[in-house]
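Chain A, query sequence.
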Amino acid sequence: MPILNAIAHRIQKDGDAQAKLVPAQAPIPQTDTLDALLEGLNKAYHGKSKAWGHFHDVERADEGSDPASPLPWELTDYLAEGRNFTALTRGIAERLTALLDAHLSVSGDLIVLETRFGDGHFLTLALLHHREGFAVDERLAVVPARQLNLAQMSLSARIDLTQWRAGDSRQYLSWTKDRGGKALAEGFAALLGAVEGVDATGETRTLLRAFSDYVEREDLPEEASREKTDALIGYASDQASRGEPITLEELSEVLDEQQPRAFYEHIRNADYGLSPEIPPDRKTLSQFRRFAGRSGGVSISFDSHLLGSSVEYDEEADRLIIKQVPKQLKEQLRRKT
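Chain A, predicted structure.
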């Protein structure tokens, strides 16, 4: 992912003292070390729980029309070459300093990166805190070393500038949901001018429910069902690792190369209300698996999320209670009786 611009602004905050911004005077020169930092930052960001959405609807209005966040206007001005990268990022850093002054008591470095990947154009920002470590110098002596702590990324965001400028997406902006105070999370979203437009957890759950319905409708053998489950989780996890959304048409092709639109048409015909692109939720994906077993001529399999609702397990009585019998099975049972 080629780096177009990179910069670091320091925010100093010691206990109850007022936060102070130490702004950079120029971007960081491109080096192999900076490339390595970008790779580590991307990996850390993709592993975070995030919200997905877009700028407030007045984003393309004149300067000052949205007092809560001038960021969309500043980005428009920057892309039109009305201001340079240092000025753009200093404005972000100044507002972030005020936010930290009110909600955090630790220092950090605001890293802002402008990058290109394929046809995509991105702006990534992350507040990274420090940790004390050790290193061995050229004289082979152990010396203290201050490091950026990628794991402690309390506030970060990424804007897909290409999608934003195209105007055909409502999920071009993502930002981390900090586990700290609610006021800090809301303040950061306001700083960005962000409006949450996609519920990643809810959309992922709906997608998995649509898949379960599809498997049931097709009455697939257990082995085929398991293979498709593995394909879905594999594809979705890969997309999450790259920080990219699940594309329904692409997923449909992954699930069945012979009938590449079968799953996609199932979703559209049943009207699950899913977006064409879904930001994957890692936690929801990791909990999705199938229970299966065969004994004495009885073969049973079902998705784990059905346990406790459509399927109940009575361990003491050694019974499995199915509340919603599949349609195909009910028809077979009626014919038998």
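Confidence is low (pLDDT under 50) at residues 59-66. The first helix runs from residue 32 to 46.
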